[in-house]
Amino acid sequence: MENDVSNTIQPRLTQVFRFVRCSYADGVAELAYAFDDGEELVERIRFPHAPAVPAARAAAFDAALKLLHLIAGVSYYKAGVPPRIELADGPLDDATAELLDQLYLHGLAEFAYRNGLDLRGRISFPRGGVAPVVGALDLPKRTLVPIGGGKDSLVAVEAIKSIGGEATAVWVGNSALIAACAERTGLPTLNIQRELAPGLFELNRLGAWNGHIPVTAVNSAILAVAAILYGYDSIAFANERSASAATLEYDGQQVNHQWSKSLAFERLLGDWLHTHVAADLDYCSVLRPYSELAITRAFAKLTPYFDVFSSCNRNFKLLGPKPVDRWCGQCPKCHFVFLALAPFLPKPRLLTIFGRNLLDDETQAAGFDALLEYQDHKPFECVGEGAEARAAMVALSQRPEWQEDALVERFRNEILPQLDVAQLALEPWLQPSPEHRVPARLQAALAAIG
C-alpha cells in the first residue's frame, strides 16, 4: 500500500510530519515517513555488493542510518511543511536536534523564499534524548570522494591521488555522465542508488509545496552510512569557499542555494559524526580554502577530463530534455563555468569544450549580468560570488583575444566604469583561505590545488 497516497489528502493542510521507521537489510535501507495518519512514504537506498556490518561497527552504523532517515526526510517534509514533527523513536539529544533544526531551516530557505513561506519558528525537532558516547573505530585509512560530473570533484580527486591517498569515486543516482567521469578518474567506483517514495510524486499532483532541497546534505548522510558499511575513515567533498556566501538576504534571513555545501553545515555534520558515529570518521571539503576561480585554474591543467566533464545542471534533471552535447549554453552553470575558465585556458580550447562562444552572444547578456550581480541578484545555482565573476570579466576585458566579443565589450563600456577596478584584481581570488576542516592525513593534498 506504500504507493497509495489517499486522494483526499491535501498536503498543505497537514498538521504532523512523522518519521515512522527506518531499517536495513541485504544492502537496502528503507526510510518511512507519513503525514498525519496517511499512507507511508517509503524511500529506498541501495548499497551495491554490501558486506555484512562488522559487529564492532554495528552501533555506529545504526546511528548513521538514523541520521540518514532524519536528513532524507527533508524531501518529504517540504511537501506540506506541517507545524508538528513526530519521531517514532522518541526525542533527540540536543546536538542532533540542533543539526536538524538548522538544516531544515537554512536548507529550505530558498524553497521558503520562492513559495512565500517563513519557516522560522515552525521547524522544531523534539529534543530531550541522551547523546551517546562514542570512540574511534580504527576505520581503514581511505577516502570516499563524491563525483558530481563537474570540474570541482575532479580537482579534488586529482589532489588526493597526488599524495598517494587510497580513495574511491562515489556517486548517488544513475547519471551516465557522472559514471563516465568516475571511470576516467581511474579510481575504484561505488554507485549508490536512491529511490524516492513514489507517493511523493502523487503528493505533488495533489498540490504539495515544491522546490529546492539541500540534496548535498542527503548525499552526505548516505555516504556516512557507506563509510561505516564499507570501511572508510573520511568523506571528502569538493565544496569551495564561495559556497558559504548567501545568494540573497530576504526579510532578515540569508538565503543560500548552497547552504548544505557551506562551511557552517560542514562543521555541524562533521562534529556530529565525531561525537555520534565514530571519532575517526572525518567529513570535510578538500576544496574549502579555495575560491571558484582558484579551482577553475587548477582544473584548466586537467586536460584528460575536458571531453567528459559537465557542470550544466540540465544534464542532471530528473525530468525533461537533456543537452545533446553536455553543455546547454543557456543556464547559469554554463555561463559561470565558461566565464571562470576563460582567464585560464587558451580561447580556442575553451570554445572547443563548449562548442560556441557564450561571451559573443548578445542574447546571453541577462544571464551574465546576474552572475556579475549587475541589476540582479546571483542566480539560485551553485555558482561563484558576484565579485569573482566581475574579477574574471575584468581580466578578459584587458585581453585582446576577448575584448571584441559582444558581452566583454559591453562590460568594458557600460559596467566597468561603474566599478572600482582596484577591487577587481584576479590574483587575490587565487589565494587560499586558512579556514577548512581537512584532516591531517589529507592536508598535503591542498598544495596540489593551489
Describe it for me?
The chain starts with 15 loop residues before the first strand and ends with a helix. The protein has 450 residues and is α/β, with parallel strands linked by helices. It has helices spanning 58-72, 74-77, 94-107, 109-115, 151-162, 176-185, 198-205, 215-231, 263-276, 292-299, 332-341, 347-354, 365-371, 386-397, 400-403, 406-415, 445-449; strands at residues 16-25, 28-35, 41-46, 84-87, 143-146, 167-172, 189-195, 234-237, 248-250, 253-255, 282-285. The strands form two sheets. The chain has a nine-stranded mixed β-sheet with strand order 4-1-2-3-7-6-5-8-11, sandwiched between helices. A two-stranded antiparallel sheet has the order 9-10. α5 (151-162) links the parallel β5 (143-146) and β6.
- Weakly predicted, low-confidence segments: 318-324
Please outline the major beta sheet: 9 strands, mixed
Anisotropy-based shape = globular
Highest-level CATH class of the largest domain: Alpha Beta
Tell me briefly what this model is.
The protein has 450 residues and is an alpha/beta fold.
Chain-wise SSE layout:
Layout: E1 16-25, E2 28-35, E3 41-46, H1 58-72, H2 74-77, E4 84-87, H3 94-107, H4 109-115, E5 143-146, H5 151-162, E6 167-172, H6 176-185, E7 189-195, H7 198-205, H8 215-231, E8 234-237, E9 248-250, E10 253-255, H9 263-276, E11 282-285, H10 292-299, H11 332-341, H12 347-354, H13 365-371, H14 386-397, H15 400-403, H16 406-415, H17 445-449
Parallel strand pairs: 1-4, 5-6, 5-8, 6-7, 8-11
Antiparallel strand pairs: 1-2, 2-3, 3-7, 9-10
Helix pairs in contact: 1-8, 3-9, 5-10, 14-16
